[in-house]
Amino acid sequence: MTSRVLIATELPLATRTVDLSAIARNVRRVLAIGGTPIMAVVKADAFGHGAVEVARATLAAGASWLGVATVSEALELRRNGLDAPILAWLIDPWVDLEDAVRQRVTLSCANAETLAAVTSAARVVDATARVHLELDTGMARGGSTVDDWGDLCERAAAAETAGAVVADGVWSHLALASRADEQGVERSLAAFDHGVGVALAAGLNPKHVHLANSAGALAHPSTRLSMVRVGAALYGIETVRGRSFGLEPAMRVVSHVAQLRRVEAGTGIGYLHEFVTSAPTTLALVPVGYADGIPRALSRGGEVSIGGRRRPIRGAISMDQLVVEVNANDVRLGDEVVLLGDPRVGEPDSAEWARIADTVPHDVLCGFGERVVRRHSELRPSGGVA
Ligand SMILES: *Cc1c(COP(=O)(O)O)cnc(C)c1O
Asked: Strand order in 281-286's β-sheet?
């Protein structure tokens, strides 16, 4: 076996490097702007950034809670030694909740069925389950309807009296916080205040009342309440229309030039020849495609950066490969191709991809496939990068 073969099998086709110190700076930025305790939302593997690593970095930077969607996401954090309070908010009543109760995961309850499942899990493991009740305040997605809310609060109060649960949180989610105006959040806030009043009247004592996502935390002070649930802002996504809060992207995605070819005018590129050259030019092959999370919509209008210069993607992006047009003289085989980088130095970012692909940056960041090998920069005590 030659060493050349060994090197080739060890080189990933593409990597995403997550800068944990950028995430730490984003946490401190949100804390500085809002001053309210932060629940760091690390669902969906921290929007593709690595849930365990991001959870550690955000807690070290001053976050107080961790937020996830599912019980298995919460238990993965516990298995990796994360001891902070965790809220999980998508709880089906038929899943096994015993480990979650044992591991002190706070379980969101949006209906009587889930509350009953949590209560019986608490009885089985002979522990008190922690519960936050979710009210819908104008999103028509998760949460108790206003009609069911009084009944849910009364059931929770009864379970608390029986010693099965501690229901010390009430929360909701904002549909319209990304709008810069206040009207969108005011109606939710009024509905939420009313819901908290109903919980108090039922005999609950919710010391955690939380409503705001990143946009609420940054742009709508009235929604901050006792805690803010921050996802997007941790990862550098600016979610408030027309405003920027100085957040930094934390994920850099690079690949390399895997092949170069000279072509004549009139050359059709890729499946169905969606792009045809109008002059002789040079094409570079980049070994990533839509299976790796590169939106196929970037086939028209997407760009990469090579050697500090923008280069257009040409032809339809394939499952594993894409083609860019380069200048013959300044690109070499093996050169780094920046897919997502730092917009401050002219590299493409997730907001640019999202515009072209008609989606949101969140979708771009959590869409990368396993073949895009993930690495984390080390976080030093100073917050710098090792
Ligand atoms: C995803 C999510 C968040 C985080 O929202 P961002 O806009 O990413 O800050 C907060 N709360 C709930 C319930 C969520 O599902």
From this structure: 259-263, 281-286, 322-326
**In angstroms, rounded to a whole number, what is the distance separating the alpha carbons of residues 362 and 251?**
12
Ligand 1 centroid vs 120 CA: distance in angstroms?
A: 28
Alpha helices in the chain (DSSP H): 3-10, 20-34, 43-48, 51-60, 71-79, 98-102, 112-125, 146-161, 183-201, 214-219, 350-357, 361-365
- pLDDT, one tens digit per residue, over 295-314 is 999 999 999 999 999 999 99
Helix (H) or strand (E) holding 167: strand 165-171
Q: What are the φ/ψ torsions at residue 112 (nearest 5 degrees)? A: -65, -35
Map out the domains of the chain with their CATH numbers.
20-235 (3.20.20.10), 250-376 (2.40.37.10)
Query: With 60 as the cut, is the pLDDT of residue 116 above it?
Result: yes
| Shortest-distance atom of ligand 1 to CA 230 | 9
DSSP state of 377: P
Ligand 1: which of 173, 208, 243, 350 to mutate, most ligand atoms within 8 Å of CB? 173
**How far does the centroid of ligand 1 lie from the alpha carbon of residue 211, in Å?**
10
C-alpha to C-alpha distance for 129 and 174, rounded to whole angstroms = 26
- pTM exceeding 0.85: yes
CA 143 – CA 25 distance, rounded (Å): 32
CB 232 near ligand 1, within 6 Å: yes
| Statement: residue 358 has pLDDT above 60 | yes
Cβ proximity of 251 and 17 under 8 Å: yes
Residue 88 in contact with residue 106, Cβ under 8 Å?
A: yes
Sheet holding 105-109, edge to edge: 208-210, 165-171, 129-134, 105-109, 86-88, 65-68, 38-41, 228-230
Is 337 within 8 Å of 324 (Cβ atoms)? yes
Binned at pLDDT 50, 70 and 90, residue 382 comes out as very low
Sheet holding 303-306, edge to edge: 309-312, 303-306, 336-340, 251-256, 14-18, 372-376
Would you report the helix, strand and coil content of the chain in percent, each value rounded to 5? 35, 25, 40
Q: Give dist(CA 289, CA 322) in Å, integer.
A: 6
User: Distance (Å, rounded) from C-alpha 354 to C-alpha 232?
Assistant: 14
